[in-house]
Design goal:
The protein is an alpha/beta fold. The chain folds into two domains: about 170 residues, Rossmann fold, CATH 3.40.50; about 180 residues, Gcn5-related N-acetyltransferase (GNAT) (Aminopeptidase), CATH 3.40.630. The protein is built from eleven helices and 13 strands. Strands 2-3-1-4-5 form a five-stranded parallel β-sheet, with helices on both faces. The longest helix has 21 residues. The two termini are about 35 Å apart.
């Protein structure tokens, strides 16, 4: 995964990036250092450190190349700096976007006015700054407003500073919905997964339950999916309680010889009939369409699985074809439902 942390000056981008890199053992690149490397090497022409807009035009294509290389090599990387365009998504297709998370750090006008002295006192925590370049309150307010406007609706997560001059950054979280966050499944989730995968009522569509070995294989398969595609089943976590209510995600499926992106979900028995399946599937479709730019999302459902058929109907999916799957030697016909991205380029043609 590549994490890009951008935002206005003095919002704590460098400090947060260092903490993230240290905590999760990631490599870290500073765009300010890349900028000065270009300028001091003479490869920026007559541009100076003050020519921000022109520097961004020169620097961003290099960053795009770095990001693509990191994704292709499955390298974990943090990139921090202000030279990130609001339309960053158009430089990558879904193969890369699934492995990229962009955060924009901002401070509100009220926070800046109330905490300006604190902001200035902390300006040298992560790097040495020139006191002569100290920003005024008005400049900070206008720049933070501009960054918020630039990245609103871009697919980046906008993060407001809190009272402790810090941010709650969860790098394993992929997206969220009204009641749930969706994060990557970890080995430490073993017992939670056993609660689902060993429950006959939850696994009725599979016609069999898992043993411990199969649960561990399940976790490894999810991890492989994250590395290969950037997504797979995610742990669906209740925002209020922190409890895992189920597994909901996107899967690459082979449908009659074609690879297609589908939604999948599985809930703990006690959380069935609470609307989580519909909420989670809708969140995955939104993530696939609005961030990854997928042209369609499918769902494969057994004809006798009435609850899932109802979910597909609520999502506006339509039955397109059938496919036969084999699980543990059993032949299982599935209906293939599909929903198209009305905003995709192909749909507009």
């Amino acid at each position: 995964m590549v994490y890009i942390i951008t935002g206005a000056t003095h919002t704590g981008k460098t400090l947060l990036s260092i903490e993230l890199a240290v905590r999760y053992r990631l490599s870290c690149i500073s765009l300010d250092l890349l900028k000065m490397g270009l300028i001091r090497s003479g490869n920026a022409g007559r541009l100076t450190a003050e020519d921000d807009s022109e520097i961004e035009k020169l620097l961003w294509p290099i960053v795009v190349g770095i990001v693509k290389t990191a994704v292709e090599n499955r390298q974990e990387l943090v990139i921090e700096g202000c030279y990130v365009p609001g339309d960053f998504r158009r430089y990558f297709d879904s193969r890369y976007l699934a492995h990229i998370k962009v955060y924009c750090l901002v401070m509100t006008g009220n926070y800046i006015r109330s905490n300006y002295d604190l902001i200035i006192r902390r300006e040298n925590i992560a790097e040495r700054r020139d006191p002569g370049d100290r920003p005024a309150i008005g400049f900070l307010i206008s720049e933070n407003k501009a960054y918020r406007e630039r990245f609103t609706g871009s697919g980046a997560k906008i993060m407001e500073t809190n009272i402790k001059y810090g941010y709650d950054l969860r790098p394993d979280t992929v997206t969220e919905s009204e009641r749930l966050i969706y994060r990557k499944i970890k080995r430490s989730d073993f017992s939670e997964l056993c609660e689902m995968l060993k429950d006959p009522e939850v696994m009725y569509a599979w016609e069999g339950i898992f043993d411990d070995r199969q649960v561990r294989q399940w976790i490894r398969k999810r991890t492989d999916g994250y590395k290969e595609n950037g997504y797979d089943y995610f742990a669906a976590v209740d925002k209020e309680t922190g409890e895992i209510v189920g597994q909901i995600g996107l899967l690459e499926e082979n449908i009659n010889g074609l690879s297609r992106t589908g939604i999948g979900y599985m809930l703990k028995k006690k959380h069935i009939n609470k609307g989580y399946a519909t909420e989670g599937a809708r969140a995955m479709i939104k993530y696939a369409f609005e961030y990854l730019g997928k042209e369609e999302v499918i769902a494969t459902i057994r004809p006798e699985n009435t609850p899932s058929l109802k979910v597909a109907g609520r999502l506006g999916m339509t039955n397109e074809t059938t496919v036969t799957k084999i699980w543990n030697g059993k032949i299982m016909p599935h209906l293939v439902f599909v929903i198209k991205n009305r905003n995709s380029a192909d749909q507009k043609r």
